[in-house]
Structures are given as structure tokens and as C-alpha cells.
Amino acid sequence: MKANKEIAAYTLDALKKAGADHAQCIVSSGKVDEFNVDGGEFSLLRTLFNSSITMKALKDGKKGVISANKLDKESIDNAVKQCISAAESSVSDEAESIAPKIKNDNFVSGALSPDRDKFFDRLQEYVADVKNDYPKIILEQLVSKYVHSEIIFMNTNRAEFTYTYGNYDLSSMFSAHEGEKSSSFNGYYAKFDSLDKKLIDIGMQRTLFAESEQQIDTKPCAGKFVGKVIITPACLADILLISFGNFISDSTIIDGTSPWKSMLGKQVASDKLSVYTKPLDEQVVCGERFTGEGFMSENMEIIKDGVLKSFMLSNYGSRKTGFPRALNSSRNLFVQPGDTSLNDLVKSVDRGILLNRFSGGHPSTNGDFSGVAKNSFFIENGQITNALSETMISGNLVDMFKNITGISCETISDGVTVLPYILVDGITISGR
Predict the structure, then answer these.
(1) Which end of the chain is more exposed for a tag (fewer CB within 10 A), N or C?
(2) Is the CB of residue 175 less than 8 Å from the CB of residue 186?
(3) Per-residue pLDDT tens for 418-430?
(4) Beta strands in 156-205 (DSSP E)
(5) What is the mean pLDDT of residues 218-246?
């Protein structure tokens, strides 16, 4: 059993013979070429081969799910036994199902073979560019990879998808240093499928490097006040995903704890805000083509002009609650840009923060949050002033969406998301 399709077909047959009424499996195999840089110096080059299988069986309405990272017959046979055993010991749930066959398809995306020499040259150039253009920055760690994957989804309803893709990525952790002084750590992640431009020019890395050099010397915010916060693209994706996890995901919609549980089709945010997930957009590198449940992925509106258009529900969550299933399960967030420049957003802030990173616990069920503003700057009288230390921000996510007062016309694309800067009012800012 060498081909992923043969492995998937064997697995489904074995699950049926073992007693499954319905079954599905996802088989993945791939190769990774990885370069590591530590402390600004190349430290590792390696090639990794990976493979995995995830299988799901339904028996008498009960579900079993097992994953394994070996694709030989013995490993699969053992995983099948565990999967059936897990199903037999679980609780029956009529919302459990597998996807129907609607339209099978094969997908191909990205750079299907690496240019290793050019890739290494670009990484050497990247390290040199950081040293030359931002001499105070130290790349504490850089991991950059070329990833090639082949994935197949099959189920006993004869639904079948394959996806072959290849892309590069980089993940960095860095800080600025001057003598014994240093900035807080920061990091960045980006995906790309072309080596035609400098890696340092991808996304907002230059901005973050330059700002880190300014963050060597910091001051705490004085006092406590309610002000405005400009959330940068570097921070926005995390805030949106945390919010959507709290408000429109399976767990909170099923258990009824979401503040937005009855807000589908109603205003939940400023009419300035429109948010989408777009795995099929050309700016997304090797985006999702089908979900883990076996549905073909489509782009989706989440919020349009402030109105909640979709929950982010799985097929199970949809069947459990009666609300529509999400059209994808991606994290490829797009926020529609506004008509105001970042410069003008800053000018509109009397007293507030430019927020690059938020460090805090998970928000409460009602959306209350509190944490530390990291890698951030104070804004006063329409001017970005000093880098901040020891500054807390707190508020409520439900209110935050309603209190969006501006969105920049500039956007940043990192191969995963396309996001602007967002100005929010009504945030409590606390310093010393």
C-alpha cells in the first residue's frame, strides 16, 4: 500500500468489515525541507518525511476517531481496531454523520517542487538584510521551510477529494538589543509560493523590525483611562479568532453560552466592519480546498457591514443546532479595508495605544478580557510617542466590535490573511 488512495480505500474497507456503519478517512504524506537560523547564524538544514491518517467510524450512531502517523498495514489495522473500540464505548448522538457525495474533485496549488538553491540564497539574503537594515535586531530563531503535501479524503458515501500543494514559509522570533538593554520578543509568520522577491519584504516584517528597535527604551503609561486602541494587522487575526471562538464556534453555539447565539442576521458590530474567510482567494497561499468533514470549501461572509452573516459551525455543529454549516474551516481572514489612512487614524487619537501584540488569558464567556499590551506604543494628541511597558488593557469583546470607529485603507497580506488597521474606542488602559 504505497499510494494514499490505496491506503484510504483499504482503511474504509477495514472499518466496514470491523462493524462501522459509516466511515471516513484522511491520508496525508509529504516532505519538508527546513532551514534553521539561531542567533543570526544558520544552524540546521534537514529534510523530513511525514505521513498521517485520521479515521472516523460511526457505529449505531456512536463515533470513534483515531489518528496515526504510520501508514503500514499493521499500524492501520491496529488503528482500525482502536477506532471501532472508541465508537463502541462512546455515546450515541444523532447529530453525528459523514458528508454526502456532492462533487468529487482534485486540487493542485502552489510551487510543486522547491528551488533549493534559490531558497537558500533568499534566506542568506534575508539574514543579511536584517543585519544591514536593522542592526539592533537579533534573529533569536528563524525556521523557514518548503512543504510539499499530498492529501486525500474519502468516505463510505464515495465522497473523494485530493489536494497536492507546495509552499514556502518562515517563522521568526526576534528582539532588539543595545548594550545591556533589549526589547520584548516578537515574532512573525508568513507563507509564500514564489521566491521572486526579498523575503524581508513579505507582510509587515520591516515595520515590526523598525518598531522593535524603538522598543529598547520603554515607558509605562501614566494612570488609568478609557481611550482608543489601533489594532495592527500583526495582532488583529488573533483577536478576531479568539472572538469568533468565543461567539460563533461549535462549543458556544451548541451550549448556548455565546452572546451572539441569537444574533444571526442582526447587527453585532459597527457598520464599518466586514469580515470574511477566503481560502480560495489568490492572495492566500495554498488555502483549504475541502474541510476535514469532506465538504468542498467556499469563501464565506462572517460579518457584512456589521451584520452577523454566518456562524463558524462544523457539519456536526450545524446538525446539533439547526443553524447553517460554515462554508469552510479555514483561518484565512479578510477584513474589508476602510477609506481612512493609517496616518489619519493616528491623528484622530487623543490618547491611546498602537497595539502590536496582546498577552492575556482567554476571555470570559461574556467577552470580558484583560491583558498586557506588548510591543506597543503610546499615542497622544495624534502622534505616536514612546514605546510602552507595564501597560494593561481591558474591555469587552462584544462592545469592542460595536465601538470600531475607523478602518485603514492600507492592508497587509502575509499569505494567510489580508488585514487592515482597526481603530477601537472604549478600551480601558492602565499604567503605573
Answers:
(1) C
(2) yes
(3) 999 999 999 999 9
(4) 160-178, 181-182, 186-192
(5) 95
| Amino acid making up residue 217 | D
The secondary element (H helix, E strand) that includes residue 426 is strand 418-430
Measured CA to CA, the distance from residue 370 to residue 257 in angstroms comes to 20
Of 292, 306, 285, the closest CA to residue 250 belongs to 292
Place of cell 476571555: 363
**How far is C-alpha 194 from the geometric centre of its chain's CA atoms?**
21
Contact 327, 300 (CB under 8 A): yes
Backbone angles phi, psi at 288, to 5 degrees: -55, 140
Question: Residues 241, 331: contact at Cβ < 8 Å?
Answer: yes
Among 108, 107, 111, CA closest to 167 = 111
Question: Rounded to the nearest 5°, which phi and psi values hold at 397?
Answer: -65, -35
SS (H, E, C) 120-139: HHHHHHHHHHHHHHCCCEEE
pLDDT at 1 over 80: no
Q: How far apart are CA 135 and CA 198, in angstroms?
A: 18
Task: State which amino acid sits at residue 329.
Answer: S
* 123 closest CA partner among 175, 169, 177, 167: 169
Grid cell digits, residue 202: 513579505
Q: Taking residues 323-339, what's their average pLDDT? A: 97
Gap between the terminal Cα atoms of the chain: 64
Q: ∠ at Cα 365 (362, 367), nearest 5°? A: 75
